[in-house]
Every structure is written in C-alpha cells, then in structure tokens.
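debug: dumping io for the single-chain case to check the tokenizer round-trip. Nothing else runs in this session.
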Amino acid sequence: MVAIPFWLEMFAVVAASISGVLVAREHKLDLVGAVALAVVCGLGGGLLRDMTLQVGNVYILNQPMALPLSIATAAIIYIFPAIVDKPDKLIPLLDIISVGIYAATGADKALVYGFAPVVCIMMGFFTAVGGGMLRDGFMGVVPGIFQRTNFYAIAAIAGSASYVCLVMSG
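debug: decoded output
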C-alpha cells in the first residue's frame, strides 16, 4: 500500500478547517461556533468514513495532531481575520484542495483493510466531501455537493477511482 505523507494529511486538515472557519465568519458565528465548524469541516469526512468502515482506529481520536491543529487553525483565523484576504474566493480553493487529498486518504484507508475497489472509491468520496457536507448542513444550507454548479462530488469520485486504480495496478 501507499502511505499518504503525514504533512499532506495535515495540510488537508488545515485547508478544510480554514474553509470551515471562513464559513462561520460569513454566518457571524462566535469563536466557539467557528472552532466547531472548522473541526466538522476539517475532520468530519474522516469520521463518517471511520464510522462506516468500522475497522481500525477512528482518525480524529487516534491522530494526536489532527484535532489540535484544526482547533488552532480555527482560532488563529478567527482571531486574526486579516490573515485571509478575499475569503469568498478562498473557500472554493481550500475546499477543492482538501477534497483531492481526502479522496486519496479515504480510499487508502479502505484499501489497507482489504475492501473491494468500489467500497474504497465510496470511502474516498465520503472522506472528501463529508466534512463540507456536514458544514453546510449545520449552517442550514443545501450542501454544495448537491448543487448543479458544484463538481466536488464528481471530482471526489474521479480522484478516489484514480487513486484506487493506480495503487491496485502496482
């Protein structure tokens, strides 16, 4: 199996967490709400994957850096909003970066445990779009992946499928 580099996983956590806190700021949430939304966005997809697979460790509980990094990222971006210029342009960029990385990491975890390729692709999809879907749902808006102009779901499936094919082909 291919190991996803640790720094790449943490980059995805930071990117998705920033996206979550920016959405929280758009909706005028307080610091606690911003941190909660950042954690949901940054780590929610992996939690959905791990609850569905029911094998191995739950990432959010087992990876000692992920949760503190998500919380710290949220607090810094919330307290120092000037760090992020043009958040409306940044949210889609951060979302697609995290979708790409999480598609591979989600598929990889299912591959490690010997699931069928279609299940691996589905777990990559859940991991990639789950956090953003939960974020949008918590904010009371239709999740972006269900909107006609949003191609994150297709990108997540294509990315997961590509990853699974590449790993299985050796």
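debug: round-trip ok. Residues 87-112 form the longest helix (26 residues).
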